[in-house]
Specification:
Number of strands: 16
Number of domains: 2
CATH superfamily of the largest domain: PPM-type phosphatase domain
Largest sheet: 6 strands, mixed
Radius of gyration: 33 Å
CATH architecture of the largest domain: 4-Layer Sandwich
Shape: elongated
Order of helices and strands: HHEEEEEHEEEHHEEEEEEEHHE
Structural class: alpha+beta
CATH class of the largest domain: Alpha Beta
Length: about 425
């Protein structure tokens, strides 16, 4: 360290440098200079100060860590350098000593950069002068310059965050419009066919989908699905799935080929980033036959003669494997009357204060007691029971219920 105070001439040169740096910083901020430009100004300004040797500037990143953004005469290495958390309890300018990281060896002064008592950055440096008057002047300027630059950087971050939020809101609005088109506009409430659906999105945009499609006078398609992910990408993928279902069901008489084609469609559109669980069932009214494929979805519960059974036959989730493994079509004959209950995992995975899930067993017990209820009443009663079960916990996923009741008044009986 130098033991002599700086000459008046040297002090004037430093002041000129500092004044010039302030003007350059303000101009850079006014012209919306990049963060890297602002850090460059800080680095060259502090490096030009004869009272300062090595130094580094650490700024909080989006993950709450203090990442090195500027360094001078310090070999940082290939890995990113982060400010030690144990030093963040130092909230005033002062000397420090840190031996756990050799990059801090010669650094002896820590300057917290705060805005309204909230730390935004940390400057650590090596002092080359032990004259108290000179040290105070240098530290005060470095602290002021860093504060101006870091506040400007934070403003840029805030602006980016606001822009992202605006974009996300715009995407949600688009996704909402897309999703509104997915669901059928009306469901049958007829003498021999009753279909009821309830949809409770966890967010403003959910990832669930249900459908009912009269293919022709004889065949009825029931479908429920759940896409991984949320927001616009999930909504678009689900709209592609719905479009695929509605197009293919008019062309494909074979449910196995239809599911294969839906898997190919999802693979092309999702590129492996999302997948869909789905259940598709066709009821043949004249022959009283049910065919279905369960593609990794929560197994719907089918009541025939008051006895429940789970519809498990099918394959794995759609959009993950190019060739669906062990794809089978389930088939039931002689089904003149039935009650079908389909749902998404938001029901069974709802947890209570003891972290206990509602689960498949409770759902089955509820349906065994209530399956003969009017379907609107059944849906309301189930949601009321689920509300009571979860106690103080929040719902963590979308919930979709699709129930169908077919009575023995099919076309060949008229």
């Amino acid at each position: 360290m130098m033991n002599m105070a700086l000459s008046i001439e040297s002090k004037l040169k430093i002041k000129e440098l500092e004044l010039s740096a302030l003007f350059e910083t303000i101009e850079a901020i006014n012209t919306n200079a990049s963060e890297s430009d602002l850090y460059r100004i800080f680095k060259f300004t502090v490096a030009s100060n004869p009272l300062v040797g090595k130094f580094a500037l650490f700024v909080s990143d989006d993950e709450g860590r203090w990442k090195q953004m500027v360094s001078h005469q310090i070999v940082v290495g290939d890995k990113e350098w982060y400010f030690p958390l144990e030093l963040t309890n130092i909230d005033t300018v002062g000397s420090f000593h840190y031996e756990k990281d050799p990059r801090f060896t010669s650094l002896d002064l820590l300057i917290p950069i705060k805005h309204k008592d909230v730390p935004l950055a940390y400057v650590v440096l090596e002092r080359l002068d032990n004259n108290e008057e000179d040290k105070k002047l240098s530290v005060a300027f470095i602290e002021a310059l860093a504060n101006i630059i870091i506040v400007a950087v934070e403003n840029k971050r805030f602006a980016r965050k606001e822009a992202r939020q605006r974009e996300y809101k715009r995407q949600l609005e688009i996704a909402g419009n897309v999703q509104a088109l997915l669901f059928p506009k009306s469901l049958p409430n007829e003498e021999d066919l009753f279909v009821e659906a309830s949809y409770f999105p966890h967010h403003s945009i959910g990832g669930d989908y249900y459908d009912f499609i009269p293919i022709d006078e004889d065949r009825l398609l029931f479908c429920i699905a759940d896409v991984s992910g949320k927001g616009l990408p999930a909504a678009i993928l689900m709209s592609n799935f719905q479009g695929g279902v509605r197009t293919l069901v008019k062309k494909e008489s074979n449910l196995k080929d239809m599911v294969k084609e839906l898997n190919r469609l999802i693979m092309e559109n999702a590129q492996g980033e999302n997948f869909i669980t789905a259940f598709l069932m066709i009821y043949h009214r004249s022959s009283h036959k049910i065919t279905y494929v369960n593609a990794g979805h929560n197994p719907p519960i089918l009541f025939m003669d008051g006895k429940p059974s789970h519809l498990l036959t099918g394959t794995t989730i759609l959009g993950t494997f190019k060739e669906l493994p062990l794809l089978e079509v389930g088939e039931l004959q002689g089904v003149k009357e039935f009650f079908l209950f389909c749902y998404t995992d938001g029901i069974t995975e709802t947890a209570n204060d003891q972290d206990e899930e509602f689960g498949d067993k409770r759902l089955l017990e509820f349906l065994q007691e209530n399956w003969q209820l009017d379907q609107k009443a059944l849906h309301r009663k189930l949601m009321k029971q689920l509300d009571a079960f979860k106690e103080h916990q929040e719902y963590v996923d979308d919930i979709t219920l699709l129930s169908s009741r077919v009575l023995n008044r099919s076309v060949d009986d008229v």
